[in-house]
Amino acid sequence: MTLIKNSKKFLAIASFMMALAIAFGAFGAHGLKSILDDSMMKVYNTGVEYHFYNTLGLFIVAFLINFYPNSKKILRSAWLIFIGMCIFSFSLYALAILSLPILGAITPIGGSLLIIAWLMTTYAILKD
Question: 19 lies in which domain range?
Answer without folding.
Answer: 5-127
